[in-house]
Amino acid sequence: MNNIQIDLAKKTLLFLENNPWKDIKLESIMSKKYSNNIKNKHDLLINLNRYFDYELKKTVTNLEDSSFKDQIFEILMARFDILSKYKISIVKLVKYFQSNPHSFIRLIPSFVESIILILTMTKSNINGIKGAALIKGTFILYVLTTFTWINDNTPSLEKTMTTLDKYLDNFNKILKIIT
Question: What does the alpha-carbon distance between residue 151 and residue 97 come to, in Å, rounded to a whole number?
Answer without folding.
Answer: 16
